[in-house]
Amino acid sequence: MLDDRKLAVLRAIVEDYVSTHEPVGSKTLVDRHNLGVSPATIRNDMAVLEEQGYIAQPHTSAGRVPTDKGYRLFVDRLSTIKPLSAAERRAIETFLANAYDLDDVVSRTVRLLAQLTRQVAVVQYPSLTRSSVRHVELVPIAAQRLLLVVITNTGRVEQRAIETHEDVSDEAIAHLRALLNARLDGCWLTDVPDALADLPEQVPVGERPLAATVLSVLLESLVEKHEEKIIIGGAANLARADLSQSLRDVLEALEEQVVLMRLLGEAENPSGLTVRIGTENPHEGLRTTSVVATGYGAGDQAVARLGVLGPTRMDYPGTMGAVRAVARYVGQILAGS
Amino acid sequence: MLDDRKLAVLRAIVEDYVSTHEPVGSKTLVDRHNLGVSPATIRNDMAVLEEQGYIAQPHTSAGRVPTDKGYRLFVDRLSTIKPLSAAERRAIETFLANAYDLDDVVSRTVRLLAQLTRQVAVVQYPSLTRSSVRHVELVPIAAQRLLLVVITNTGRVEQRAIETHEDVSDEAIAHLRALLNARLDGCWLTDVPDALADLPEQVPVGERPLAATVLSVLLESLVEKHEEKIIIGGAANLARADLSQSLRDVLEALEEQVVLMRLLGEAENPSGLTVRIGTENPHEGLRTTSVVATGYGAGDQAVARLGVLGPTRMDYPGTMGAVRAVARYVGQILAGS
DNA sequence: CTTGGCACTCAGAGGAGAAGAGTGCCAGAT
DNA sequence: ATCTGGCACTCTTCTCCTCTGAGTGCCAAG
Asked: Do B53 and B71 meet the contact criterion of CB atoms below 8 Å apart?
C-alpha cells in the first residue's frame, strides 16, 4: 500500500518539518535529502500520502505538514529511539546521584528532563499503591496530639497529625507502635487494610479508642487518599513552541492534577514508552501537543511515571531517548538508596 | 507641585487604563469621569503629568498610559486597599479551613490567591528560620539507618535519613532522643546550634559517635540548608495578560526559586504589604510585571511571605485587598492548628 | 486659569498589485 | 509502468499606497 519510497518521503517530511517548522514542498525535499528522483515524482507520492491522511496542506499553495496519523506512522515504523551521547549520560548520572532525598530526586529529575528535551517535563511521585511499608512511627507531639509517620521502601515519607481527644499514656503508644510495626513491616500498602482488619480486637480495651483513631487516619492517608503527587518543570519551553492560540489552554491543563495523571496515562505496557500524539490525548486543550511518557521505578517494578509534553511537531526519536534514559537512571537511584 | 485635580486625572487614567487596556485620551476621560472641566484643561494637566514622568504616550497621536512612576504614586497616595466582599471572605475561610495538613494549606492558598486575583500566585512555605522546635524524633528504620524527624510550631515536618555506619543500641537512641527533646523543646531554630554546642560532652563516651553524626545532620538540615520552598499557581493567567513578548522571560523567571525568593522580597516592613512595580523588580525578565506581596504567619509573627505577580497594568486596590485577606486567614489557620 | 477652535501628526485599517512558492496534470522519455 | 520536465494555475504573503480618525499642542479669547 505504501512502498518504501513513499515511507522515505514521509520520514523526510516529518524530519524537515520538525527542524524548520515550515510546511515542506517537493523541491526543498529533493534538495535536502538525496532521494534520487525528481520533484514531480515526489509530488505524486505526496498526493498519495495526502489521500491516505498522513500529510496535509495548510492551504492550497503551501507545502505539506504531517498529520497526527503521519506522526503516528513515523513513530511506530519509521524512526528509532535515539540513544543519548556518552556525555549526556554522564551528566544525568552525576546530576541525579547528588540528590539527597526523594523530593530532591524528583525535582532534579523534572529539571533534567525539561532541559534535556527543551520541553515541559512531568514527573509523578513514586506511587504509594505499589510501595511497601518500611517503618511506622507514632510520636506524641503535644497533649492529645500524635504524629503518625509512615516510611515506604520507595523513600517516600507520609505524615499525618492525629487528634486523640483524650490523654494517652506513653505505654499505650509504645504498645500500638510495636503492634503496627510487627503487622505492617514489609507489607504492601494495598494489603494494609487486610493486615489491620482485626487490630481493635488485639489491643487492651483501654487502648481501643486510640487504636481506632490511629487506624482510621492510617487507612485514610495511605489507601483512600492515594493522592498522586505530580510536579512539572520547564513550562517556559512552551512559550518557545509557539502554540500561540492554545497556549493558555495548555497552561490550564497543566495545572490540573487530574489531567496530568491521565496524560501520563495508565500504561498499556507498564514499563514501555507511551507516545500520545495530538488528538490521541485525552484532553481538549492538548490537541496540538504530544506526550512521551514511561514508567520508572526501583528495579523492574514500575512505581510511577514520568514524561514530557511538547508540540506534536517535536523531535520524537530524541525525546524518546531522553525520557527512556532519565527513567532508567532515576530507577537506579531509587533502587540504590 | 501637583494640585488635586492633576492627581484626580492621574487616578482616572490609571483606573481607565487598567480596565480598558487601552491608552486613554482627554476626551474619553471627561466623558467617563465627571471632572467638571473641559478636555482642553485635562490636556494641559496631562502635559504636566507627562513632563514629570507619571504618564507617557506610546506614540504621538495616542492617549496616555501610566508609567511605573505613575503607578507608584497611584498606589502610594491615590488608592485605598479594597476590602473583599463578605461572600469572598466566607469562601476563603471555608476553603482554607478544610485543609488537613501544611502541604494542603499551602496548596489551597496558592490556588485561592490565583483564582481571586486572576493572576499568578506565589506562596513561600513557612520558613524554618523563624520557627521553634515542637518535637524531635529519632527512629531506627533499618540496621545502621535512622530517621530524624523534626516538627516545628508552624506545622512543618522536616525529615532526614542518617547512616550511622555502626550498630546502635536502642537505649542509646532513646537516650539521645530524650536529651534532644529536653534541650530543644520550644527552642528557636536559629538558636539550635548554641543549644547543642556542648552535646557531645553530655553523652557517655560510647554514644559520642552517634551523637556527633546526628548533630551534624540536624544542623545541616535545619540551619545551613534553610532551603526556602516556594510554590506557584495560576500560571495560565499569564496567557490572559498578553505580555506577549516577555511571556517567555516571565515563565523562565518563575521557574527559578532564587528569583522567586527575591521577588517576594526581604520585606522592609515585615508584615505589611509590599508592592513592586515594573522596573522596581530585581529581575530582568519582569520589567513589565508587578508584585504584590506580604508576610504571613501564625499570630503576628511573620514566618513567610506570599503574593501575586501580574502585569504592571493590574488592579492594585483589589489585588492588595485579596493578598492581605488571604494572608490573614492563612495566619489564623496556622495559629489554630 | 479655563475654554473652544484649529492645524498637525501618526498608527492602523483597507485595498491593489507583484512576487513567489508550490501544486496538479499532461505528454513524452526511459 | 514509472518517471520526468514543462506549464498553467492557485493562493498566501509582502509591500506600497491612501485614507481615516483619534488625539495632541498651541493660541487667542473668555
From this structure: no
SS3 state of residue A161: strand
> Closest by alpha carbon to A322, among A163, A137, A110, A146?
A110
Mutate to test the interface with A, among B119, B149, B154, B225 (most CBs of A within 10 A): B149
Map A226-258 to HEC letters: CCCCEEEECCHHHHHCCCHHHHHHHHHHHCCHH
pLDDT one-digit tens code per residue, A299-333 = 666 678 999 999 999 999 999 999 999 999 998 88
Q: How deeply is A59 buried, as exposed, middle or buried, from its count of CB atoms within 10 A (0-12, 13-18, 19+)? A: exposed
Tell me how far apart the alpha carbons of residues B315 and B74 are, in angstroms, rounded to a whole number. 11
> Which of A101, A139, A234 has the CB atom closest to B135's CB atom?
A139
Return d(Cα A120, Cα A297) in angstroms, integer.
21
Q: Are B137 and B161 in contact (CB under 8 A)?
A: no
Question: For chain B, what percentages of helix, strand and coil (3-state, to nearest 5) are there?
Answer: 50, 20, 30
Closest Cα to residue A293, out of A326, A323, A329?
A: A323
CA of A11 to C1' of D1 (A): 25
- In whole angstroms, what is the distance from residue A63 CA to residue A13 CA? 10
Strand positions, DSSP E, B166-237: 230-233
Distance in angstroms (rounded) separating the CA atoms of residues B78 and A336: 61
**Hey, is the C-beta of A258 within 8 angstroms of any chain B C-beta?**
no
Flag residues of chain B having pLDDT under 70: 129, 155, 223-227, 242-245, 266-271, 299-302, 336-337
User: Smallest CA–CA separation between A36 and chain B, in Å?
Assistant: 42
* Alpha carbon distance A3, A45 (integer Å): 10
- Comparing alpha-carbon positions, the chain A residue that sits nearest to B161 is A101
Distance CA A276, CA A316 (A): 11
The whole-model pTM stands at 0.83
Say whether residue B238 is in contact with chain A using an 8 A CB cutoff. yes
Pairwise CA distance, residues A220 & B320, whole Å? 38
- Grid cell listed for A32: 535536502
Q: What is the pLDDT of residues B105-153, one digit of tens each?
A: 899 999 999 999 999 999 998 877 677 887 787 877 777 778 788 877 7
